[in-house]
Amino acid sequence: MKKFVIASHGTLAKGMRQTLELFVGNDLDITYMSAYIEGEKDIGEQINTYVSSLSHEDQVVVFTDMYGGSVNQKFTLAAEGYPQMFIVAGFNLPVMLEIIYGADTYTRENLQQFIEKGQEAMQLVEPKEKLEQNAPKNDNQLTTDLTEKEETKPLAANGIMPTTLRVDERLIHGQIAMVWSKALNLEGILVANDEVSQNDTQQMALKMAVPSGIKVLIRSVDEAGEILQDLRAPNKRLLVLVKTIKDAVRLAEQVPNMSYINIGNVGKAVTGEKETLTQFVMLTAEERQSLAELVAIYPETALQNVPSDKKELAQTFLEN
Known about the structure:
By secondary structure, this protein is an alpha/beta fold. The chain folds into two domains: 2-119, Phosphotransferase system, mannose-type IIA component (Rossmann fold, 3-Layer(aba) Sandwich), CATH 3.40.50; 128-318, Fructose Permease (3-Layer(aba) Sandwich). Helix content is 38%, strand content 21%. The protein contains 13 helices and 13 strands. Helix 2 (43-52) packs parallel to helix 3. The two termini are 38 Å apart.
């Protein structure tokens, strides 16, 4: 069984909990340990109690805050005799997410690869002018795959294309880049938004979040619909992102064979009277009506913030 520990001097580890749960939910087996804090047990006692509860079938990745620090040292000593316990020192959020979602079984070799990939996310952010200067002149990375003439392949036997449509008012952000991209094994991200498709600065900011190896295309909603109806699109593992449920309906009416419709984050950026369905979904009366229209096209439409969360059918909220 996969287990994780986040351990630090002071309250850093427990402070990571709220942030990490936004990305991975709260269903994973993660233990948080704080050292040298009044009211907490001695860190050595915490570690010994935890290690004694493990079985030899468990695989454990321990994240400590500082290489060579006392917390790291104590875990290193406690790990003797547990070859399936791996200790990663000097954690950050991208490294943790790379490792958590990176594999079902860990080795020293793949953990090193995940650490190196996570470290790439630590960069000095250049000012807007320099980013624009270094941006590709024709940054239509996904266009080549979806619109150039190539031999087409038949759809799967059930006629369903491997495309997920997600309503997320932030469009491309950390959850998409670090969590959904891995869960869906994406080849490309298609952002469908009328305003962003006309705004080069917003496009540049969104593309900063896209993981390496994943192609991205930003188009208006109607243009995205045309792309998804193309005979080449059904063979690509795509995540289509829209800001509103109303835009999701516009695409669903054009593309009735996507594999999953996901209501993720919506409503926080909208003013006015809203109905709270979940912590992450708050709908105006207009958006609730759009949700009913979407469910009529795709009955399996579900609310799900991160892949580890349980899918909650949208229909159940409409019945209330």
